[in-house]
Amino acid sequence: MIALVTGATGFLGSAVARRLLSAGFRVRVLARAGGNRANIQGLDVEIAEGDLTDTPALARAVAGCEALFHVAADYRLWVRDVAAMNRVNIDGSVALLRAAAAAGVGRMVYTSSVATLGINPDGTPATEETPSSLDDMIGAYKRSKFLAEAAVRRLVDKEGLPVVIVNPSAPVGPRDIRPTPTGKMILEAALGQMPAFVDTGLNLAHVDDVAEGHWLAFDRGQVGERYILGGDNLSLREILTAIAAITHRPAPKVCLPHAAVMPFAVASELWARLFGGEPFATVDGLRMSKKRMYFSSEKAKCLLGYQPRPAVDGLRDAVAWFRDHGYPRIGG
């Protein structure tokens, strides 16, 4: 069986490609011409050059495929050009899924995000049924993913596309090559560059377990349903303490009020707009951190057989990968 994987040169997508290869799939990956392909180096995959904004390239990429895993997304918490992000995350997703349907692809997995879900005000874990609206979405990334998932649902309901939706939390582990916003936080903590923190919480899952969840959704998921692929709910203090133990560094002890950090985030964004690069902290990221982003994977566990390992294993593997790939100053 031939499966097209988008995003396979990135973090989660490369883990999905590896899982499919181990399951006996022939894997084709959509990759930009001239892009960094280190994450698929040595893998027995076919390259289809193109990107999500190139509709003819999408049609060529899905030709002859029987399965599609659409993992790719523009995942940044701060962007200069919101429209460009929307063209990738919303328009590109719709174009790809329609191209796959036209090519006769019989089964598709769309990678959404827990960012599209509601958050319980009391901090208890949210589920696939926790209500949310576009007004709840903070920042360009969350809004784009919310609108993209809504568009995918319409394709299922109105055009009969055979799509199963998965909502990963924050994957952590090896091959976070860019890195993702979560990976950047792990790296900075491992380098001893996070002396303080704010009171927030995240759901972390090992990237290889999230990839396994994609395979399980393909194999067992119900078309039109969505499944949270998460792991452990941890406060930021707990995450930083775990990284400190892994790297043999002192754990940060200073918890800063959100209001005290906001001027720094504003200044950081202004600096990025004036001089380029990405801000060290963002206003939207700080706004999101006011809530504990905790989620439950019970639906995926019960219906798909999803069984994530402890999240600290992912943190340990992430730190080891960063240490082995250009960051020798990391302790441990």
Account of the protein in words:
43% of the residues lie in helices and 16% in strands. By secondary structure, it is of the alpha/beta class. The protein has a domain at 2-176 and 204-232 and 295-310: Rossmann fold, CATH 3.40.50. The strands form three sheets. The protein has a seven-stranded parallel beta sheet with strand order 3-2-1-4-5-6-10, with helices on both faces. A three-stranded mixed beta sheet has the order 7-9-11. Strands 8-12 form a two-stranded parallel sheet. Helix 1 (11-22) packs across helix 6 (207-220) and helix 7 (236-247) crosses helix 11 (311-324). The model has no long low-confidence stretch (mean pLDDT 91).
Low-confidence stretches: none
Number of strands: 12
Q: How many H/I helices?
A: 11
CATH architecture of the domain at 2-176 and 204-232 and 295-310: 3-Layer(aba) Sandwich
CATH 4th-level superfamily of the domain at 2-176 and 204-232 and 295-310: NAD(P)-binding Rossmann-like Domain
- Rg is 19 Å
- In the sheet with the most strands, the strands line up as 3-2-1-4-5-6-10
Estimated structural class: alpha/beta
- What share of residues are in beta strands? 15-25%
CATH class category name of the domain at 2-176 and 204-232 and 295-310: Alpha Beta
Main β sheet profile: 7 strands, parallel
CATH topology of the domain at 2-176 and 204-232 and 295-310: Rossmann fold
Q: What general outline do the C-alpha atoms trace?
A: globular
